[in-house]
Amino acid sequence: MKSYSEIEASDLFDHITKPKVLLVDVRNDDEVARGIIPGAMHIQLSMLPVQYEKLMNANSVVFYCHSGVRSAHAADFAVNKGVKDVFNLVGGVIAWGKAGYILSKKK
Questions:
Q1: Neighbouring residues of 38: CB distance < 8 A, sequence distance ≥ 6
Q2: pLDDT for res 106
Q3: Within 10 Å of residue 71's Cβ, how many Cβ atoms?
Q4: Which residue of the set 7, 22, 65, 78 is catalytic?
Q5: What pLDDT is recorded for position 15?
């Protein structure tokens, strides 16, 4: 049984404007270099076990990756560490792009 929720790209677009919503890109550095969802924080999936404390003060955390598989693992990990209101972007940046939303350069 999943302990996190799934979110579609169109719902995420509306959700990320809410206060204390943290958007986390768990893709590898080379993938993020091609573009990131505006406002997202980059924590590579392999680094999540040593950086998850950064997520603890958010009201809501949304994970995404290329297609939604790695971010589902990240969401499950975060919930098991006590992070509340966790989401996984269904279809990842592929779905984000297909919905017509842009990626920006990582800052």
A1: 102, 103, 104
A2: 74
A3: 28
A4: 65
A5: 79
The CATH number corresponding to 5-98 among 3.40.50.620, 3.30.190.20, 3.40.250.10, 3.40.109.30 equals 3.40.250.10
Sequence ranges of the domains in the chain: 5-98
6, two tokens: 């799934």
The DSSP output letter for 61 is E
The ranges of the chain with pLDDT < 70 are: 1, 107
Instruction: Please name the amino acid found at residue 61.
Output: V
Catalytic annotation present for 107: no
Q: What is the pLDDT of residues 3-34, one digit of tens each?
A: 999 999 999 988 777 778 899 999 999 999 99
